[in-house]
Every structure is written in C-alpha cells, then in structure tokens.
Specification:
The complex is a heterodimer of chains A (about 280) and B (about 250).
Chain A: H1 3-44, H2 50-54, H3 67-98, H4 103-117, H5 120-134, H6 141-165, H7 169-177, H8 182-211, H9 214-219, H10 239-247, H11 252-283
Chain B: E1 4-13, E2 16-26, E3 31-35, H1 42-46, E4 59-67, E5 70-71, H2 79-85, E6 86-89, H3 100-110, H4 116-129, H5 133-136, H6 149-162, E7 167-171, H7 179-192, E8 197-201, H8 205-211, E9 214-219, E10 222-228, H9 229-234, H10 239-245
Helix pairs in contact in B: 3-4, 3-6, 4-6
Classes of the chains: A mainly alpha (about 280), B alpha/beta (about 250).
The structure holds adenosine-5'-triphosphate and magnesium ion.
Chain lengths: ~280, ~250
C-alpha cells in the first residue's frame, strides 16, 4: 500500500467514526426529547379540551384552566417584543455602523456578550429593584415585560450586529458612492438584506422569553390568578408559572393539569417559531 | 486649472503611512491611469476624491484635495454632494440585490428625484452610455444579480453615471472580468472620456497604455512619476518606473 493510499484509508475510517459518534449523539438527544413528549402527552392529553384553555385556575383540579396564564404569556411576549426589538436593533445599528471601534466600543461589545450569558435570576433581581420598587411599577405586566426585555435584548443586539456585519461591504460602498447618506444606506440596503437573519435572532430571543420563569417569580408575578390582565399595570401570571405551581402540588390530578399546560406551551412556542420561519423564508428569497 | 488635484497629501491608517506627500493634478476630460505594485496606495489615493476613506476608523489625512479648485475636506461641504459629483466604480461588480432599473435609479432617488418620467429617461440614458441598454432593455425588472459579471460591471457604471457626476473613479474595473467584457469596458472608457474626467487604477499595463492620456506611477505611497502615457511607456525618467512597466518587479 502506498503512503497516499494508507493516508486516504485512514481519513475514511476517521470520517466513518466521526459520523457514527455524531449519529449516536443525535439519536440520544432526539430520544430524550421523544421520551419527554410521550410522557407529557400520556399524562396531559386527556385533560386538553376547550374548557381547560378557557377556564380560570381552581382549587378543584378538574375545573382548573389556563386562561390567565395563556393570556399573560401572550401579552408579556408581545410587550417584551415591543420593548426589546426596536431598542435592540437600534443599539445594534449604532454599534455596528456609527460607533467608533475604539476601546470604549470594544468594552461595550464585551459587556453585551457577557450580559447574554448572565443567569436569568439576576435579571429578575434587577427588575425587582429597578422596575418594581424604584419605578414603582409593582408586580405588573409592564414590570415583567421590561425585565424580560432586558433579558432578551443582548441576544437581539448580538444577532442583529452579526446580520448587519454579514452584508457585503461592496453594498455599503456602492450606496455611499452614489451619494446616499449613512442612514439611507442602512434603511434601504443593510436592514432589508439582513432582515431574515435579524428575524432568526429575534425568534430565538423571544422563544427564550416564553419559557423563562425565574425572573418573573423574582419580580413577584402571581401564581394564582383568577382574572385577565386589563392593562399593562395589571398583575399577571404566565404559563410556566402556572405549570410550576401545579407541579408542586401533591395531588396527581394537578400533575395532569401541568402536563396539559406544558403541551399548550409547547404548541405555542412551535406556532411562534413556525410563523417566524415562514416569514423568514418569504423575505429571504 | 485642474479638475481634481491633491497638494502635499499625506494619509495614515493608524501607524501605516499609506500616502506620502502626493501632489498631482488631473485636467478635465482626461483619463489618468494609476499603476504601481500591490499595496502602494493606488486605491487609497482614488478613494480620497469621494471621501470613501472617511468611513474607515483611524484614518488621518493631511494636505489638500481640491475639486474644481475647492477643498472637499472643508467642513462646510456635504460628503454626499461630493460623492454625487465624483462617482466610483469598484473592482468587484457590486449591484444591489434589486432590479436592473432600481439599481440605476437608486442614486437619483436618494438625491431627492421622484419624477417618474425623469427617472425613466435617466435610467435609459445611463444604460445606453454604459453600453448595456440593448442587452437589458426588455428585462429592466429582472434582478441585477441574474446578469453576467461583465454586464453587472457595466450596470455599476450606469448606476454611477445616472447621478451625472463629472469625475469617475475606477478601481481596477475590469480585473474581475473576461477578455471580451474587458474590451467592452475599455471601449466604454474611450467614449466616456468625452464627457467625464476619469481616474482608473489598473494592474494591466496594456490597458493603461490603451485607455489613458496620462499615467501616474506609485511606489510605497509615493508618486514616483506622472507624465503623458506615451512618455511613461516609451521613455520613463525614473528607473523604478522603467523596471515596473517592463515587469522587472512588482
Ligand atoms: N482599511 C485599511 N486599514 C489599514 N490599512 C490599510 C487599509 N486599506 C489599505 N491599507 C494599507 O495602505 C496601503 C495602501 O493600500 P491600497 O489598498 O491603497 O493599495 P493598492 O495600491 O490599491 O493595492 P492593490 O493593487 O493591491 O489594490 C497598504 O499598505 C495597505 O495595507
Ligand atoms: Mg487597490
């Protein structure tokens, strides 16, 4: 066997081994997910009906429903998006296109990257101090959305910056060269071209907000709510908290409720993600 | 008077001294070719005239850059005005991911023109002047990314012409193109020179000799020799110029 042939055989073996390892890893992850889903569906599917969705929580497990949690989650996500998306994209545009790349810029950059990794409970404490106490927003929907907004903003900023950075520099130069201003260049070219990737970042960020519980518990979101929020100052709960509340009860029937709640939460996330993917594909063609 | 000129111009990128005391003037309706080895500062020099270097952090510029006798780095001048009057064509064709029509119309739109008829006429005229009209007139709505590289580069020239500049900067405009597209661009430069002042960077000596009236040889950020193209290619005064054009270095 020539050295070349031996080398190529070795490479092929390595390739196969790597493939096998990757497939085993994938199978492991997928089977755990499937197991989880099967388990949840087995427990909760029978509880899922219209009245479960439209009812308020109750001391009796069979009468309890998720409407306050569902409404709270929906409103919270909506408010969080309204707060964090414009500020996040604006900050990213500033940092990428206007801010000087000096030591201050780099410091800001490092800090944002760090913020993205800060445990969510810390954001909860910040929200408690800043929004609930200092701004006296109390344990309102607005306080929750502001806290969540802070939590997801670094992710939005980072992914938007990456998306803008990925636009070929030739496009910028071409636009400037015919007399477009910086802002026209951003608005006419950079944002439209970067839009699909920006959207991906936003989806990831918002999905994270849907599942977060810790910061909301920290700022004092309620766990037993028998009304719907009627304004941004209204107290609220969210689905994950409702689920958490049911799980922590001793009775088996409440665990079934929790499982059914999880199914709804999963469907909700799935729905949002697929909406976003459809939107993204439409714009990126 | 010169159409554009620099006086004792120094440019630093951070610690790199990229242009060293360059004084050079370009007459109206002339084509000036800039030649020199890679990294000698040709692109940097070209980008002075439409202030494209401003957009890079840590650039320091000393000296004067004059356009029609006026300093374009003067604080009172809007950069966008300068860029409208001094157009640029880049090395790689860089059309916007929009229709052919919108690519050419873009410069007009950002400069506040929204008369539909005016835009249509201007697009047609620019595409004709860029020798592209006959090839694309039936599919102006098609994406600019769907035409060939050579056509894209002529589209970029049309885009530059649409805002009616008087000077056109070209940074190796045909180096990414096939010989036929290259020949078309050269023909085009020949036509354009009747109306415009053109500065063209090229690594192709034959191209410099064919299209330009005057040639400037740069070396390590300095202007070594600047003279009529014929003189430079038949009777260079400086030894380094001679070595470069005969291919002995660079
Ligand atoms: N954005 C930049 N930041 C820092 N240094 C730069 C930058 N652009 C160019 N330079 C430096 O300035 C010098 C001149 O570069 P320039 O691009 O003008 O050369 P050039 O003659 O156009 O070369 P080429 O023929 O390869 O295009 C080089 O030493 C280069 O490394
Ligand atoms: Mg160059």
């Amino acid at each position: 066997m020539s050295p070349f042939e031996r080398h190529s055989l070795e490479q092929r073996v390595k390739d196969l081994v790597f493939q096998a390892v990757a497939i085993i890893g994938l199978l492991f992850a997928v089977s755990i997910l499937v197991l989880l889903l099967v388990n949840v569906f087995k427990d909760g599917f029978s509880r899922l009906d219209w009245s479960f969705i439209t009812s308020y929580p109750s001391r009796k497990a069979e009468n309890a429903g998720i409407i306050p949690g569902l409404a709270g989650t929906l409103l919270l996500v909506l408010l969080t998006a309204i707060i964090s998306i414009p500020i996040g994209i604006g900050a990213a545009i500033y940092l990428e296109e206007y801010g000087r790349k000096n030591w201050l810029g780099r410091l800001v950059e490092i800090n944002i990257a760090n913020l993205a990794g800060v445990p969510s409970i810390v954001y909860g404490l910040l929200g408690l101090g800043l929004f609930v106490r200092w701004m006296q927003l109390d344990r309102s929907l607005l306080a929750g959305a502001l806290t969540m907004g802070l939590l997801v903003m670094p992710v939005i900023i980072i992914s938007t910056r990456e998306a803008i950075k990925a636009v070929p520099s030739g496009i910028r130069e071409a636009s400037w060269a015919v007399g477009a201003t910086k802002w026209q260049t951003i608005w006419h070219h950079l944002l439209p071209i970067a839009f699909p990737s920006i959207l991906t970042g936003i989806i990831l960020a918002i999905s994270r907000a849907i599942g977060e519980t810790a910061p909301l518990i920290t700022i004092g979101a309620l766990t037993y709510v028998t009304f719907l929020p009627d304004s941004v100052q209204s107290p609220f709960t969210v689905l994950p908290i409702q689920i958490f509340n049911w799980v922590s009860r001793p009775q088996e029937a409440f665990h079934e409720n929790a499982a059914a709640g999880i199914i709804v939460l999963l469907l909700f996330t799935l729905f949002l993600n697929s909406m976003a993917i459809i939107l993204r594909n439409r714009f990126s063609k | 008077m010169f159409k554009v000129e620099t006086k004792n111009l120094n440019l630093h990128y951070g610690t790199t001294h990229a242009l060293k005391g360059v004084t050079m003037g370009i007459k109206e309706n002339n084509v000036v070719a800039m030649i020199g080895p890679s990294g000698c500062g040709k692109s940097t020099y070209l980008r002075l005239f439409n202030r494209m270097n401003d957009l890079i952090d840590n650039v320091k510029i000393e000296g004067e850059v004059l356009f029609n006798g006026k300093d374009i780095y003067n604080g009172n001048i809007r950069v966008e005005e300068i860029r409208k009057k001094i157009g640029m064509v880049f090395q790689k064709p860089n059309p916007f991911p929009k229709s052919i029509f919108e690519n050419v119309a873009y410069g007009l739109r950002v400069n506040g023109v929204n008369n539909k008829k005016f835009i249509e006429e201007s697009v047609e005229r620019s595409l004709k002047n860029a020798a592209l009209w006959d090839e694309v007139k039936d599919d102006l709505k098609k994406s600019a990314l769907s035409i060939s590289g050579g056509q894209q580069q002529r589209l970029c020239i049309a885009r530059a012409l649409a805002v009616e500049p008087s000077v056109i900067l070209m940074d190796e405009p045909s180096s990414a193109l096939d010989p036929i597209s290259n020949a078309k661009i050269e023909e085009l430069i020949y036509e354009l020179k009747k109306k415009y002042t053109i500065i063209i960077v090229t690594h192709n000596m034959q191209q410099a000799a064919r299209v330009s009236d005057r040639t400037a040889f740069f070396y390590l950020g300095e202007l070594i020799e600047y003279n009529d193209t014929k003189e430079i290619f038949t009777n260079p005064k400086n030894e380094r110029t001679q070595n470069y054009i005969t291919g002995r270095f660079g």
